[in-house]
Amino acid sequence: MSTSSALLGDRRRAALARAEAMHRHPTKRSVAHPASPPPTAFYVMAVVITVFTMLGLVMVLSATSISQFHKGNSPWRMFDRQLLWAALGCIGLWCAMRVPTRRWRRLIKPAMVISSAAMLLPFMPGIGESVNGARSWVTLGSFSFQPSEFLKLVVLMACADLLAKRRDEMHDPARTLTPVLIIGGLGAALCLAQGDLGSAIVMSAIVFTTLFIAGSPLSLVAASSTLGAAAALWFVSSSPRRQARFTAFMDIAAHKDHLSYQTYQAMIAMAQGGLTGSGVGRGDNKLGEFLPLAHSDFIFAVIAEELGMIGVVAVLGGFMVLAYAGIQVAMATHDRFHSLLAGGIVGWLVVQTIINVGGVTGLMPVTGLTLPFFSAGGSSLFVTLTACGFLLNVARNVR
Amino acid sequence: MPVARSQRHGRDIVAPPPPHAHRSARGKQPPGGFTLTFRAGDPRRRLVAVFIVAMLLFAAVVGRVAYLQTTGSESLRAAGKAQRTTESVLHAQRGTIFARDGGELATSVPSTTIFANPKLVNDPAGEVSLLAAMLHLTVDRQKALLQAFGDKSKSFVYVARQIDDQLANSVLALQLPGIDSVHEDKRIMPSGDVGRSLLGRTDVDGKGTAGLELQYNALLTGLDGERTREHDKNGHSIAGSEATTTDAVPGDDLVLTVDRSLQFQVEQALVTRVSDLKAAGGTVVVMDTVTGEIYAVANVKRGTDDVVAVTPANLAAVEAFEPGSVAKVFSISSVIDTGTASPDSTVQVPYRIVFDKGTKWETTIQDAEQHPTEDMSVRDIIVHSSNIGTLTLAEKVGTQRLHDYMQAFGFGKTTGLGFPDESAGKMKKAKDLQGTEKATVSFGYGYSATALQLVAAVNTVANGGVYIAPKLLKATIGADGKVVETPPSETHRVLQVNSSKVMTSMMQDVVCNGTGTGAQIPGISVAGKTGTAYKLQSAGDYGAAGNRSYRATFVGYFPAQAPRVTILVTIDEPDPTSRDRFGGTAAAPLFTKVAMSAIHELQIVPTPGDTGCTAG
Q1: Which InterPro entries match (chain B) (predicted)?
Q2: Touching check for B233 and chain A: CB below 8 Å?
């Protein structure tokens, strides 16, 4: 064993030496155009992203056609919108994947300013919209989006950029931890100002994951994340309504008629799905319109009802595969920024998925987060796809 | 600034430096004077940690979903099914009750009932006030509805039952959420009140509560069907869901032995007669002599408002009374049938007999009209309705034998009609008869019988000595339209054929020459017997002269040689001051009237050679 580990160490050192040599004498202008074909992880991720996006479209159609029809709209209405956003998302993905990241890094500061400013749009009369107690939506005509989705990506890139530049100063909280926490804290505060706790949590999760991966001292990360959690708890307890919603998940059956109605209906839908599900389009609880927000926050329940446990395992398994491939890429890449970006995106997707599914299944309080790739909601899908574009960009430039 | 000592991770200090360790440097020295040292972690290890944590979280979520979809699914599935499924009952149509001629006596007609599904009512207060305005609901009813609408565990609440279709349509036109209608049958009597006391009634749910409606409720009810429907939150049927329907099986129809037209005429005649006599009530039964089928049963009573009307109660079956002199038919029958005496045998008959003279049980029994002690033939005894003569003859038959005859005539037990609350009358066992009871039984006191028992008993004589149980149900018609005739009534022989012929000839004399002359029908010979009973007073005795109340009865049958019908007429408490308080004067004329109707309706013709009482 000792010989093999020594061997591994040797290899690693040799690789580092080669990398340093490359750095001193670059033979090529850009790392964004690798000579060698992309690694397997690239294709794995591409397949998962493609399948998820398409399955997401199908599920959105299934979840919305009946309710739209009953409203007198075209059954395709929501699907059409989601399809449009998926198309835009593909463009975003393509750009994120093909444009070298160093170019993107130059845009981080202005992007940070713009997206932070955009966070104030929902408060503007006329275009701002309050949904479920959170002022997080901007509506321009028939076009609506959540600025917080964009901010998540920008904050992630800003943190990764800063931590990559200061890779040798990770031990110094003043140089790395503090500025990153300030960026993240700003983002989270903006989200909380909108009343959107879910996005604030995801924002914090992105920041802490990036800090953690970057190697920030564990004790400081732990301490600051504890402080963040305390802040979140304070936020929850500051409003009786949020408090009630938060605690309702502890006894779902008792609150099934009001506070945990959604979760209870989601649980019914999942239970009805059983092993094989009712088949796409045939979910009784969805057809009965018993499940509110079936197409957005609670689409996982529709997946579970219509595709059954097989579908659930496939979807969550897909996320796991994506996470695995993302971590692989983050570990394999020699670019510090790429590594942090990939790790942060993986952390983001994982945290958002877990919080969403945890809320739908009654494991956690419902926070109003979308399920990446699946929930109807254009900006979420667009930003998710763009983030995946970066993931793919990292993956194809590993070597 | 929150800081933690790196000693917590002693491993970081003693472990060999990670690849990037050589880049790490000591932290800045804060002005406080003590040194804080931090070490950067290895990003590769951190990535692996992130991955492991992610996998654990995913595993937890997958475990939770797997639990919900397998072992934990039972109650949730049930809850899901419950909230989208509504079961509605398809009411089976209640069978129709027909008269023997096919006329409908009681039938169910469709009407509309408004109901609510509280699960779908989203504005209870608003809907209740709208419904109240349209349906004129009482305040109490509104409160009850408001409460019912608030109870979301139920999916069916009546709002208004069996209302006018037009009103129902205008309520439905409002399209209130959760308000819907069902067709529900309403029980009506298309022939008016004809046969009301026989038919009984149903409650609002169409369940029989009295009379034949109660007796044959199971037959009439049928089998309710059920419709299960899956609907969404707003009540729309879920597309493609299966609605399962179990069709209702309509109840059987009943065909009664009653002749609607005769029933109507009898009722009207009885009402008129009871009014004229200022009587308290009366009953008429018309029975087919051979088959026991009841053609008509009329019961009328003077109400508290002093109006005489058909009663809802079938007194003919449920009310027992002391028959009085009509009972002489049975004691004289036993005398003839046992050969104790022949019609022309004579016995010495005093006007009165005193029993238990000198004791505190001293009782005097006397005939209705004073006469010297004389020799009377059996025929004279029945024609003139002599109490003393009858008891003298019955004594010869013996208490036990007379009792056996009485039982055979059907007294002391119900007729087998099975009519709800039918009375069996009261008859003591022979050995329990005490003192004068042994004597009075022979002329109709000391036991009681219903009109139906009495008519069936007299009918035994008419039917050649064979008792035939009365019958009200002629046939049933199944849901498939198949007519099933009811089995013939049970019969048993009571008298020898010859005895019955002898009795008939004597009872013809009653009508032609005796107490029953009021019952004569021109051209058809009638056999019958009158009875004028003192009614038992509330004090337990029969009252003194001038303070008595009466029950006037006539039972007869015709044509005497081959009887077709036996008719009982009994008038309860005719005006005691009137001359028309006796069986022969109060009841017999009504017998004639009813007999005339029966002759028309049943097309009864005299037997060849029959000329009635005018025989030369």
Answers
A1: Beta-lactam/transpept, Beta-lactam/transpept-like, PBP_dimer, PBP_dimer_sf, PCN-bd_Tpept
A2: yes
Residue B142 has pLDDT above 60, yes or no: yes
**CA dihedral in degrees (B594, B600, B601, B602; nearest 10)?**
100
B89 found inside a domain: no
User: Which DSSP symbol is given to B442?
Assistant: G
Clarify whether residues B239 and B290 are in a common domain: no
d(CA A110, CA A326): 27
CA distance B228 to chain A (A): 15
On chain B, the residues whose CB falls within 8 A of the CB of A330 are: 47
Q: What is the pLDDT of residues A88-123, one digit of tens each?
A: 999 999 999 999 999 999 999 999 999 999 998 888
B91 assigned to some structural domain: no
Q: Do A288 and B238 touch (CB under 8 A)?
A: yes
Q: Which of A112, A129, A144 is nearest to A194 (CA)?
A: A129
The rounded mean pLDDT for chain A is 86
Dihedrals φ, ψ of B491, to 5°?
-130, 155
What's the pLDDT tens digit per position in B299-328? 999 988 989 999 988 999 999 999 999 999
Would you tell me the crossing angle of helices B399-408 and B328-337 to the nearest 10 degrees? 110
CA A335 to chain centre: 22
Separation between Cα atoms, residue B24 and residue B40, nearest integer Å: 7
Question: What CATH number corresponds to the domain at position B310?
Answer: 3.40.710.10
Residues B473, B524 within the same domain: yes
- Residues of A whose CB is below 8 A from B80: 268-269, 271-272, 284-285, 290
Same domain, B153 and B291: no
Distances (CA, A) of A149 to A66, A159, A242: 28, 16, 22
> Residue B294 gets which letter from DSSP?
E
Chain A residues touching B8 at Cβ < 8 A: 219
Contacts of B553 (CB under 8 A, 6+ apart): B323, B324, B326, B454, B530, B531, B532, B533, B568, B569, B570, B571, B583, B587
B95 and B213 in contact (C-beta within 8 Å)?
A: no
Test B62 with A274 for CB contact under 8 angstroms: no
pLDDT (mean) for A334-350: 93
- Cα–Cα distances (Å) from B258 to B105, B199, B284, B474, B590, in that order, read 10, 11, 13, 9, 19
| C-alpha distance from B74 to closest chain A C-alpha (Å) | 8
Tokens 């129809």 map to which residue? B253
Contact: B2, A350; criterion CB under 8 Å = no
Interface mutation target, options A16, A361, A369, A391, chain B, most CBs of B under 10 Å:
A361
Same domain, B300 and B163: no
Residue range B442-477, pLDDT digits in tens = 888 888 999 999 999 999 999 999 999 999 999 999
Contact call for residues A398 and A55 (beta carbons, < 8 A)? no
**Structure tokens that stand for B294 in this block:** 């009841």
ipTM of this predicted structure: 0.87
What is the domain count for chain B? 2
Is A290 in contact with B83 (Cβ distance < 8 A)? Answer: yes
Q: How far is A127 from chain B (nearest CA, A)?
A: 32
Amino acid at B493: R
In the predicted model, what is the mean pLDDT of residues A278-295? 79
**B316 shares a domain with B184:** no
Give the integer Cα–Cα distance in Å for A44 and A41: 5
Q: Which of A34, A43, A78 is CA-nearest to residue A60?
A: A78
Structural domain of residue B196, as residue ranges?
A: 100-225+233-251
pLDDT one-digit tens code per residue, B143-156: 888 888 888 788 88
Which residue on chain B is closest to A320 by alpha carbon?
Answer: B55
Cβ of B238 under 8 Å from any chain A Cβ? yes
Q: A327 vs B239: CB contact, 8 Å cut-off? A: no
pLDDT for A162-219, tens place per residue? 999 998 888 888 888 899 999 999 999 999 888 888 899 999 999 999 999 998 888 8
Predicted confidence (pLDDT) at residue A34 exceeds the cutoff of 70:
no
